[in-house]
What does this fold into?
Amino acid sequence: MAEKIKCLIIGSGPAGYTAAIYAARADMKPVMYTGMQMGGQLTTTTEVDNFPGYPKGTDGTAMMEDLKSQAERFGTDVRFGMATKVEFSGKEGGVHKVIVDESTEIEAQTVIISTGATAKYLGIESEQRLIGGGVSACATCDGFFYKGQDVVVVGAGDTAAEEATYLANICSKVTMLVRKDYMRASKAMQHRVSKTENITVLYNTEIDEVLGENVVEGVRAVNNQTGEKTEIPVTGVFIAIGHKPNSDLFKGVLDMDDTGYLITKGKSTKTNLPGVFAAGDIQDKEYRQAVTAAGTGCMAALDAERYIGALE
Ligand SMILES: Cc1cc2nc3c(=O)[nH]c(=O)nc-3n(C[C@H](O)[C@H](O)[C@H](O)COP(=O)(O)OP(=O)(O)OC[C@H]3O[C@@H](n4cnc5c(N)ncnc54)[C@H](O)[C@@H]3O)c2cc1C
It folds into this structure.
């Protein structure tokens, strides 16, 4: 027997919990499935300095615990589980079926998708070990901690170029490591990089190892044409090789762009199917911040509430 509910929230990052707070306060009795990463991406970082309301900054995991408590305070039913299959109705007022962990069947009037995105890393041991100790996938989030210091940016696309120019304003020196002999970034972004004095671009260059025991002390770079290795002393390593939106479940069901980000209509969180909404990084490849995710989470709950209101 399927459990029948008004509002199902898939994902427990800032978007999901904010949607839950609003939906619960609107008496929609939301049920949330957290996915494998309860609390979302912020649980992988220790310092969050830019979320409003924490004048001294906070720890990512602690902040997400606060959001969870706030959502539960208003009656959100937070459950550990993965949405594994969806059968969304294409009709106004239709019932959306979601299967959790291959077995639990939920029938929801509205579904808020907040499954986020996953930053891509190189995957080498030293990089993985030093995530949070100088290795980061987000210059906007962590750049400030490297003020006046030397850093490396890995990547060759628009995001890498943007992160490098952002960091160049804060850091003393930025070295970009580009695997091929050219950059993929747009001509405009390449131009911004080349006219920024404190950015150096090294082509045909990859990271062989991130140096340091508990914190980053440098990188050993390798020229993939000559094999020559060079040590670059830096305190921060920014990996900017892209993100993967967690949208595989919705392929062929919901409209998404060619990189897998869900498409929402205009300024709303509405997807192409009535009663199905998307919030946070899953529908935002532009800003990807906790506060913007939370903002769209609020919007999704309001959109869902209005959708149900209009049916009644
Ligand atoms: C290392 C790091 C540091 C960062 N630091 C900052 C910072 O200082 N400030 C800032 O503003 N931003 C920061 N960010 C960015 C910020 O974390 C994201 O923008 C934000 O978490 C996005 O929130 P979200 O709710 O969209 O999704 P996410 O946080 O990505 O959460 C997605 C959720 O969906 C769940 N999920 C996925 N698939 C399923 C499924 N099939 N079923 C159920 N659940 C599912 C996951 O378990 C997870 O709970 C940082 C990111 C990283 C990686």
Remarks:
- The chain is about 25% helix and 25% strand.
- The two ends are 25 Å apart (CA to CA).
- The chain has two domains: 3-118+243-310, 121-239.
